[in-house]
């Protein structure tokens, strides 16, 4: 599959919709306008790729809805060159959006099949995350910490302490917390021992599962 004018047109429409839904960051909207989401899906979904919906990918997982990707990314307030840890590489779409914003991206996926597939896919399409790894996101990546930003793209029944501890002072972590339904939660680390916490509405994600598979 290639990126054709018809895809680019649909992407521009998606960006308009995301603006109507309240996304304001030009950098985030530009990144969504640039990343060819249809390439991250099976070809049978090509015609639907620019609908604002989640879709199935391999290993019973999903690619997040574009609005959710935009909402979480906007909350990160990312500056080029910052170190970002993503939990749940999945299709690599969110990873690509973060790369497009100039972040140094570290991403963890617990499904080996998806990890392998997405790693080769991203490099084939010229995305260069700093580090992709197969592992358990509950543990974060202590060797590469601290991170300026952390984004969790699966529903966490509890907030992993390891992730909070790997956030730099001044850093921001966006994590959907809950079992059936998740509350989007933003943590800002205000000192080595304190965090501000804000709840920002309900979303639905596949679960953050322990251990790797
Ligand atoms: N960011 C992805 C969203 C994928 S859905 C995208 O843009 O496509 C969430 C992903 O989190 C799934 O691929 C799932 O396998 C993964 N996941 C769930 N629990 C995990 C864990 N403990 N560590 C790492 N990845 C996890």
What tags apply to this protein structure?
single chain; 213 residues; alpha/beta; Rossmann fold; seven-stranded mixed beta sheet; two-stranded antiparallel ribbon; 9 strands; binds S-adenosyl-L-homocysteine
Q: What does the model show?
A:
The protein is of the alpha/beta class and 213 residues long. It has a domain at 57-203: Rossmann fold (3-Layer(aba) Sandwich). 29% of the residues lie in helices and 26% in strands. The protein contains six helices and nine strands. The protein has helices at 5-20, 26-34, 66-76, 93-100, 112-124, 161-165, and strands at residues 55-56, 62-63, 83-87, 104-109, 131-134, 147-152, 167-177, 182-191, 194-203. The strands form two sheets. A seven-stranded mixed β-sheet has the order 5-4-3-6-7-8-9. α1 packs antiparallel against α2. The protein is globular and about 50 Å long. The relative contact order is 0.13. The mean pLDDT is 96. S-adenosyl-L-homocysteine (SAH) binds at residues 61-64, 87-88, 90-91, 93-94, 108-111, 114, 136-138, 153-154, 206, 208-209. S-adenosyl-L-homocysteine is lined by residues 61-64, 87-88, 90-91, 93-94, 108-111, 114, 136-138, 153-154, 206, 208-209. It catalyses: [protein]-L-isoaspartate + S-adenosyl-L-methionine = [protein]-L-isoaspartate alpha-methyl ester + S-adenosyl-L-homocysteine. Belongs to the methyltransferase superfamily. L-isoaspartyl/D-aspartyl protein methyltransferase family. Its EC number is 2.1.1.77. It comes from Gangjinia marincola. The active site is at residue 64.
């Amino acid at each position: 599959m290639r990126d054709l004018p018809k895809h680019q047109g649909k992407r521009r429409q998606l960006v308009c919709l995301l603006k109507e839904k309240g996304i304001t960051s030009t950098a985030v909207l530009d990144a969504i306008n640039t990343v060819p989401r249809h390439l991250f899906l099976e070809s049978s979904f090509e015609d639907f790729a620019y609908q604002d919906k989640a879709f199935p990918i391999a290993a019973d997982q999903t690619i997040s809805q574009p609005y959710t990707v935009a909402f979480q990314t906007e909350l990160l307030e990312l500056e080029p060159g910052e170190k970002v840890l993503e939990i749940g590489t999945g299709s690599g779409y969110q990873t690509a959006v973060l790369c497009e914003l100039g972040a140094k991206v570290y991403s963890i996926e617990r499904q080996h099949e998806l990890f392998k597939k997405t790693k080769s896919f991203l490099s084939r399409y010229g995305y260069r995350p700093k580090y992709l790894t197969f592992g358990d996101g509950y543990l974060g990546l202590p060797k590469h910490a601290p991170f300026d930003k952390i984004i969790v793209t699966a529903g966490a029944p509890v907030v992993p302490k390891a992730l909070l501890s790997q956030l730099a002072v001044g850093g921001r972590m966006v994590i959907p917390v809950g079992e059936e339904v998740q509350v989007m939660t933003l943590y800002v680390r205000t000192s080595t021992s304190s965090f501000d916490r804000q709840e920002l509405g309900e979303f639905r994600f596949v679960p953050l599962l322990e251990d790797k598979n």
